[in-house]
Design goal:
Layout lengths: L24 H12 L2 H12 L4 H29 L3 H9 L5 H33 L16 H51 L2 H4 L16 H22 L1 H4 L5 H11 L1 H22 L6 H8 L1 H23 L1 H10 L6 H14 L9 H30 L21 H11 L3 H7 L8 H8 L1 H18 L1
């Protein structure tokens, strides 16, 4: 490309060429399977059981949420496959060549949060393995300020360091890892299900935990309120990837490959893993007398060699998800801030640093906070961006983008696209009071704001999409 501006272009952000388009539908399916099978996904479905759902209510909620989020995933992914550009570059069309840095950074910071959460989970698995092998020698008093002991912190840092190898070697090393890990992870999930089946005495016992929303239950009459917020949380779980999916579809051999691969790799594997999660979580009520929705805690209760095998699988599962879902997007996003100074690799290192600084173990304090503050909260931020991108690409631009203008100032795209920025802010605002209330930052708010917050992703996407269409048309 000629006449590009150095503050908008580097080799990592440049459109892909035919030689680098090596991903077929099997690669995308494997990518999603490897991302789906992870501890946060397990905690997601298990958390619904702890909130009062029975097994089929939880699995249905997960399936519906992922069928919904698949739609923007494929639509936004179309731009990557068509034009070979990553997410931060696609944003320049709707937000401007400089304005795009705001939503790209917002998406990147959310991914840093997820990176920290997954790194903490993987480090916790290593911690439990080490304690199982050494009779609990790593257990100690919590460190001041951190709130975790020295063994937990060192295991967290050790697992964090493992990511640096793949960050250094780029997206192809990540694709290789995802492809080979996917079948192994499915097998481990089925082995876990088989263990629970044997210990609980069959599916009748495993799935016997009743819904607390039916007559006589602890939460009778409250199902729809919890269901809507939970459905929004399910959408929010992959709302991050729905935005930066062009980071992966830009390597697609064809549009058909990214569509089929994603359709096969996301909703059904999520539903299967959700079933494994809720079945095993329900079985723990029979086996241990309580619902254990954290698989790391569950593995520690198993004891023997089983804990080592189970947690080794969890480490692999967490690594594959963290690299694909939570490293690529912020690496490109930070590179987009200053392409001449920050490469993809350097952006990945910045991501890793922020992942430590957020204290992720505090985000996972309770199932309720995990589902309804963190997941729903950032879906309120990302929904508007998705709505704006879809409207801009399909309705305003009619799928036509000037690739060269995306990399220079003064071309077809202004530095600051006011329509996109205004629509983003207005799309976020209605959900802000509900988020602040749910997070405990402010006291009670008007009921309408709590209701809007339950639909945060849908509300933000709809408002921003409509407003952007009206402003952009003007």
């Amino acid at each position: 490309m000629s006449n590009v501006d150095s503050d908008l272009w580097n080799e990592d952000l440049a459109p892909t060429t035919g030689e680098t388009r090596t991903w077929d539908w099997k690669a995308y399916a494997a990518l999603w399977v490897a991302m789906v099978v992870c501890v946060p996904t397990y905690m997601l479905a298990g958390g619904l059981v702890s909130e009062g759902m029975n097994w089929w209510q939880a699995v249905t909620t997960v399936l519906l949420g992922n069928m919904i989020v698949l739609v923007p995933m494929i639509l936004i992914g179309h731009a990557g496959a068509e034009h070979g550009i990553p997410f931060p570059v696609l944003l320049r069309s709707a937000f401007g060549t400089k304005g795009a840095r705001i939503p790209a950074l917002a998406r990147g910071l959310v991914a840093c949060g997820w990176f920290g959460i997954n790194t903490w989970v993987g480090g916790s698995a290593i911690y439990v393995i080490a304690n199982a092998l050494t009779d609990g020698s790593l257990t100690g008093a919590p460190l001041p300020f951190l709130g975790i002991d020295i063994g937990q912190f060192l295991c967290f840092i050790g697992f964090w360091a493992l990511h640096l190898y793949f960050i250094k070697n780029g997206t192809e090393s990540i694709r290789w890892l995802e492809t080979y890990a996917a079948p192994f992870l499915i097998l481990m999930g089925l082995v876990l299900l088989g263990w629970a089946y044997s210990e609980a005495g069959g599916f009748d016992e495993m799935l016997a935990t009743p819904s607390q929303f039916v007559e006589g239950g602890a939460k009778e009459g409250q199902f729809w309120g919890v269901f809507i917020a939970s459905l929004t949380a399910m959408v929010g779980f992959w709302a991050t990837m729905a935005l930066n999916i062009p980071d992966f579809t830009r390597f697609a051999k064809s549009q058909k490959d990214q569509i089929i691969g994603q359709a096969l790799g996301l909703p059904l594997p999520m539903a299967l893993f959700a079933f494994i999660s809720v079945a095993v979580t329900s079985a723990t009520v029979t086996i241990y007398g309580e619902a254990i929705w954290d698989p790391v805690t569950l593995a520690g209760r198993m004891g023997g060699m089983g804990v080592i095998v189970a947690l080794a699988a969890l480490v692999v599962a967490t690594l594959t998800t963290n690299l694909a879902a939570n490293t690529v997007a912020p690496a490109y996003g930070f590179s987009n801030l200053s392409p001449s100074k920050i490469s993809f690799t350097m952006g990945g290192y910045i991501t890793a640093g922020i992942g430590i600084a957020i204290f992720p173990w505090k985000l996972l304090a309770t199932a309720g906070d995990y589902l309804f503050v963190w997941l729903v909260g950032y879906s309120a931020l990302l929904g508007p961006i998705a709505g704006i991108l879809i409207v801009d690409y399909f309705l305003i631009r009619k799928r036509r983008l000037d690739s060269e203008s995306l990399f220079k100032h003064g071309g077809e795209y202004p530095a600051w696209q006011s329509a996109g920025l205004i629509a983003l802010v207005v799309g976020i605002l209605p959900n802000l009071p509900g988020f602040l209330h749910a997070a405990g930052i402010i006291g009670p708010v008007m009921p309408v704001f709590d209701t809007l917050y339950s639909y945060a992703w849908f509300v933000g996407l709809t408002i921003a999409a409509i407003l952007y269409f009206l402003l952009a048309k003007r």
